[in-house]
Write a structure and sequence with these properties.
- One of its GO terms (molecular function) is ubiquitin protein ligase activity.
- It is an enzyme of class 2 (transferase).
- It catalyses: S-ubiquitinyl-[E2 ubiquitin-conjugating enzyme]-L-cysteine + [acceptor protein]-L-lysine = [E2 ubiquitin-conjugating enzyme]-L-cysteine + N(6)-ubiquitinyl-[acceptor protein]-L-lysine.
- Residues 5-79 form the U-box domain.
- The protein is an all-alpha fold.
- It is 62% helix and 2% strand.
- The chain has helices at residues 33-41, 63-74, 80-91, 97-113, 118-123, 126-135, 144-163, 168-177, 180-189, 192-205, 215-223, 230-243, 247-255, 258-269, 279-289, 293-301, 305-311, 320-333, 339-348, 351-359, 365-377, and strands spanning 22-24, 30-32, 60-61.
- Strands 2-1-3 form a three-stranded antiparallel beta sheet.
- The longest helix has 20 residues, at 144-163.
Length: 380
């Protein structure tokens, strides 16, 4: 047998060889028994893949994966009874959390190795079960084990959504099945990975016109835009940017503090090179938010609101989209009932020198036209 023909799912992450005796750690990761025992015997008390500290060094045989490898050897393929056995494991009150984490890991690996299997998984009703799995239980005081189960469940949902990006029925299932209380608890007590995955789910579901999240959920996401962890901040901004694509979300986003959150993100871009690539998304998000009166007022009332937009008018590191979004936002702000107030704030923030620099740069003729239009609105 050619080593390259062995599915990634069936290889030990340590030895990269075919599993013969797969066992699972408390982190949910599976290894060949001899490999992980050698790792721990050398004094390593972390999971080799996740690098999480092991609070429990015991291992559990992964019978699910063993059965899957046996099926692969026999050439019988992935039959419906096997998938149903995974579903039964996930829905059973008698199954341990570790075995459920194993089952979720198997599903994720199957989706990666054989993307076509998602249709069978959906037909067998896995999605509602996954939603129930991550939003059920005693969420007021979640255990570490339950949170690990939630992580794998959310990762599984993200994988399924990635294969069906425009499926409105999945969006409806998630919104009807996920409990608001669970959502808030996960954002407050969940791991960094849970917060990132929750933001990814919201972002992916926002493609559908069915998306309607209550203000409380949006507020939890908005708070994360200025999170100290870069990955969380990125995921939150992308989620808010996606939500802005639907006009019926804008008012709730403004109420949830999205304008203030995005302004905070823009202001810290100069101090954090790692998030500069999201400048365009931030500028585009702000452009959409100030398109409604409530958003415009929120930006004007922020002590650094106009300053943040002006900073995006001319950035050496910004792309054309970011600059044009900033110009569009300023043109909206400097026209209408609050034009005088916005114009004075923009001029005080140095917009005139920024525009003159822009007109002397190598930007497109369209961008220069917008810059000239803004200069006229400013009365110069």
């Amino acid at each position: 047998m050619m080593a390259s023909s062995i599915p990634h799912l069936f290889r030990c992450p340590i030895s990269l060889e075919l599993f013969t005796d797969p066992v699972t750690l408390c982190t949910g990761q599976t290894y060949e028994r001899s490999s992980i025992e050698k790792w721990m015997a050398a004094g390593n008390l972390t999971c080799p893949v996740t690098m999480q500290k092991l609070h429990d060094t015991s291992v559990v045989p992964n019978h699910t994966l063993r059965h899957l490898i046996d099926q692969w050897f026999q050439g019988t393929g992935l039959d419906e009874p096997f998938l149903l056995s995974l579903k039964q494991n996930l829905s059973s009150d008698q199954a341990t959390i570790t075995s459920k984490i194993q089952a979720l890991g198997t599903i994720r690996a199957l989706l990666e190795e054989s993307p076509w299997i998602h249709s069978h998984i959906n037909q067998l009703g896995f999605v509602p079960l996954l939603i129930e799995l991550i939003s059920g239980g005693s969420v007021t005081r979640p255990s570490a084990e339950w949170l690990r189960l939630v992580e794998e469940g959310l990762a599984c949902i993200v994988d399924i959504l990635a294969l069906r990006p425009s499926d409105g029925s999945l969006c409806k299932m998630f919104q009807e099945g996920f409990r608001l209380a669970s959502f808030k608890i996960l954002f407050k007590q969940g791991s960094d990975r849970i917060m990132v995955l929750m933001c990814k789910v919201v972002e992916m579901l926002s493609i559908s016109s069915e998306t309607k999240y209550p203000c409380q959920i949006m507020r939890e996401i908005v708070i994360l835009i200025c999170h100290k962890e870069e990955e969380i901040s990125r995921a939150a901004l992308r989620a808010v940017h996606a939500l802005c694509c639907l006009e019926n979300n804008l008012e709730n986003l403004v109420k949830a503090g999205a304008v203030e959150g995005v302004i905070g993100f823009i202001l810290r871009v100069d101090q954090n090179d790692k998030v500069k690539d999201l400048t365009a998304a931030a500028a585009s998000t702000l452009e959409k938010l100030v398109g409604i009166d409530e958003g415009k007022e929120a930006l004007l009332n922020h002590p650094y609101g106009v300053v943040a937009v002006v900073r995006n008018v001319f950035r050496v590191s910004s792309d054309r989209q970011s600059i044009e979004s900033a110009l569009n936002s300023l043109m909206v702000m400097c026209s209408g009932s609050a034009s005088s107030r916005a114009s004075h704030q923009a001029i005080d923030a140095g917009v005139l020198s920024q525009l003159l620099l822009l007109l002397q740069s190598h930007c497109s003729s369209r961008t220069k036209t917008k810059a000239r239009t803004l200069l006229k609105l400013l009365g110069t």
